[in-house]
Amino acid sequence: MPEFRRDPVIGRWVIIDPARKFNKSVPSETESYPKDHSGCPFCPGNEYMTRPEIMAYSKNQDRAANSREWTLRVIPNNQPVLAIEGNLKRRGEGMYDKMDGIGAHEIIIETPEHNLKQDSIVPEYYETAYRAAVARIKDLRNDTRLEYILFFKNYGILANAVFEHPHSQLIAMPIVPKRVREEINGAKEYFTYKERCVFCDIISQELSDELRIVDENEFFVAFCPYAARYPFETWILPKNHSSDFDNISDEEISCCAAITKSVLAKISNVLDDSAYSALIHTGPLKEKNMQHYHWHMEIIPKLIKTAGFEWGTGLYINPVPPEDAAKYLRESE
Questions:
Q1: Which of 94, 111, 169, 271 has its CA 20 to 30 A from that of 133?
Q2: How far apart are CA 229 and CA 318, in angstroms?
Q3: 32 Cβ partners below 8 Å, 6+ apart?
C-alpha cells in the first residue's frame, strides 16, 4: 500500500509507493499515441478491461451496469494513487510522521468516442463531465477520512496522459495539499486585512483593466493571471463568490461548460493543439462556504519544462507576458 510521508521542514506531504510502476523514460515531443486503439480500456466494448463502474450516464434506461451504450462512465483507476480500503494509521517513525495512503482515485471517461477532436466538442460535453464530478465529490464528502478532492484533466502525451481517449480524473486524499493550503492562507490574510475576498478583487481588477481577459459570460470570467507562471496559463473563475465547486448551480454549470469550451478551443488554435493540464482548486471538504476563498480552474499548456532554477527557488520564468498571451487567445476564433 502507498503511504504518506511528511517533510519535517516545510510540512509538505508526499506519497511513497514502491509498488507503482516506474518508467525511467520521459515523454518526448515526437512521441505519439498508437493508431490502433482496439485495446483501449476506455472504449465501448472493453468495459471488462476496467474495474466495475461507480456510475454511468446512458440514454438507455435499461442498460446493464458495465455494459455498452453509455455516454459517460466513472470507474476506479486500475492503478490508483491512493486506495479506498483500509485505515489511515497515523504514526511516527522517530521524528518523522507518516500514514497509510488512503483515499480515492477515479477516472471520468467523458465520451465513448476515442478520437474526439477539440473542434468537434460541444459545451454539453464539458457540462456532463462537470455534473459527474460534482456528483462524485458530493458522494465522497460522506467519507470522514477525506480532507480534499482534486478534479483534473491531463491532455496529451507531454501532459502525461497515458491514454488518448478523452478522460479526466478525481483524486480524494486525507490531507489538504500544501499548494492549496498556501492559497487558502494567503486569501485569509487578505480577507483579515481588507474584509474582502482576494479572488473577487482580482476579478474586479481584471474586468476593469481588460488587458488579460480571454473570455467571459454571465457567470464566469477567463483571464491570464497577472503573475502567470507559465506561457498562456489561463484561469477561469465564477463571478459570484463560492468556495466550493460542488455548490455550483445547474445554470452555472452550463456557463462554466461554455467558457471551458471557448478557452480550450482558443488555446488549441493558438498553440496548435498543445498538451495541457487543467485542474480545479476548491475548498477543503471540512471547510465549506469560506468567505475568503474562491474556487477556480487553472489551465496550464505544456510549453516549457521546469529545471534547476525553478525547483531550487520556487520562482518561474515566463517568456510570454500574460497581457500578450491574453491578446492572442482573445483574438483567436
A1: 271
A2: 6
A3: 157
> Which residues, including other chains, have CB under 8 Å from residue 229's CB and lie 6 or more apart?
300, 316, 318
138 is written with which cell numbers?
A: 458530493
SS3 call for 329: helix
Number of CB atoms found within 10 A of residue 246's CB? 22
SS3 140: helix
User: Which part of the chain is CATH 3.30.428.10?
Assistant: 3-21+33-177, 179-331
Bridge partners, 13 (sequence order): 6
Which residue among 105, 167, 241, 294 is the active-site one? Answer: 167
Residue 166 CA to residue 126 CA, distance in Å, equals 11
> Is residue 212 classed as helix, strand or coil in its secondary structure?
coil
Q: Give the DSSP per-residue string, 148-190.
A: EEEEEEEESGGGT-S--S-EEEEEEESS--HHHHHHHHHHHHH
Angstrom CA distances, 276 to 152, 153, 300, 304, stand at: 11, 8, 5, 11
pLDDT in tens, 181-234: 999 999 999 999 999 999 999 999 999 999 999 999 999 999 999 999 999 999
CATH architecture of residue range(s) 3-21+33-177: 2-Layer Sandwich (3.30)
For the cut 70, the answer to whether the pLDDT of residue 22 exceeds it is yes
Residue 29: CB atoms within 10 Å: 9
Q: Cα separation of 241 and 291, whole Å?
A: 8
Q: Is 167 annotated as catalytic?
A: yes
Name the pairing type of β-strands 276-281 and 148-155: antiparallel
Domain 179-331: homologous superfamily in CATH? HIT-like (3.30.428.10)
**Distance in angstroms (rounded) separating the CA atoms of residues 327 and 226:** 13
